Amino acid sequence: MKDDSLSYWTGKSVVVTGGARGQGAAEVVALTAAGAHVHAVDVHPEDSHWWVDLIEQVGDGRRLLNTIVADVATESGWETVADAVRDCGVPLAGLVNNAGITLRKTLSETTLPEWDRVMGINLTGAYLGIRTLAPLLEDGGAIVNISSTAGLTGYFSAAYTASKWGLRGLTKASALELAPRNIRVNCICPGLVETPMMNSANAVHDLDTARLLHDGNRDATLLDRGAHPAELAAAALFLLGPDSSFVNAADLPVDGGMIGGGIYWRIGKATGNLGARP
Ligand code: NAD
Fold first, then answer.
1. What is the distance in A from the centroid of ligand 1 to the CA of 23?
2. CATH number of the domain that residue 21 is part of
3. Whose CA is nearest to atom 23 of ligand 1?
4. Which of 118, 201, 243, 262 stands 20 to 30 A from 216 (CA)?
5. 155 has catalytic annotation
6. Domain for residue 101, yes or no?
7. In this structure, is residue 244 part of a structural domain?
8. pLDDT number for residue 2
């Protein structure tokens, strides 16, 4: 079984957006380790330490890695990616629309430019990616869109929530369109993942507030921890590859049980009925 899945990736290429760090980097590392050629796309400049760190993590798989500095929110960015895929000449078997940004603001705090920016990267970026690369994808390939548990429930950040619900709709609509070519399109809905996104300050929240948000997410997770990015990469490889050949137009929560039971987990812990660990 293992050897089959390794040989599946030999002579195939995959595009991963947001590939320089976090979950995207973990996907790049896992795919190159499995033998795939990977086009890692990110906005970080070429000399950024995120790329340097990624190349170090990829190690011997460096010859399989192509780094592309491009903005997924633009058509020109995707044309750059498409040119690189054509130039490389290795058949394209997969696309992971992973690039995303967060905006920790409620609807009334969110300005129109902020709303447009979140939508532009998180949702329009994936639409442009599928529209540009679907013609280059080989029949039988697969697309994975990275949504969020915020795409399965209400979350205080209106723009982020709407973009992640939108990604689920985009997933289903594109699965219908690409089914005749046996190209499957699925969605992953991560819960808390230990990446720079969840562990850094941003324009709205200082590090202490970011920590509180992080810990609040962890407290609503049955497994009582955030995921390692590699745990998301494993799910992405499953959905990209032959082991998921009958999984299509689906949403896969990879969240330690947050959506499945997080509300009653918190209530149960507060009332003393649940949560005692041996
Ligand atoms: P991250 O911030 O560590 O990585 C995201 C990457 O996307 C960064 O390298 C960033 O530069 C890149 N990116 C942003 N805008 C881009 C653009 N316009 N063009 C190209 N690249 C761009 O975050 P992460 O946690 O690895 O996030 C990956 C995905 O998972 C995102 O879509 C995020 O919304 C989603 N997600 C994350 C969590 C979490 O807890 N970390 C939870 C649910 C969903």
1. 7
2. 3.40.50.720
3. 197
4. 118
5. no
6. yes
7. yes
8. 52
pTM of the complete model beyond 0.85 = yes
Q: Residue 108 is part of which domain span?
A: 5-197+227-261
Q: List alpha helices for the chain, DSSP H.
A: 2-9, 22-33, 49-58, 75-88, 112-119, 125-133, 158-178, 207-219, 229-240, 258-271
Q: Which of 122, 23, 31 shows the shortest CA–CA distance to 71?
A: 122
197-242: per-residue pLDDT in tens? 877 766 566 788 888 889 999 999 999 999 999 999 999 999 999 9
192 within ligand 1 shell (Cβ under 6 A)? yes
**Which candidate in 8, 127, 155, 160 is catalytic?**
160
Amino acid at 135: P
pLDDT digits (tens, 9 = 90+) for 133-165: 999 999 999 999 999 999 999 999 999 999 999
- Ligand 1 in contact with 223 (CB < 6 A)? no
* Closest residue by CA, ligand 1 atom 44: 148
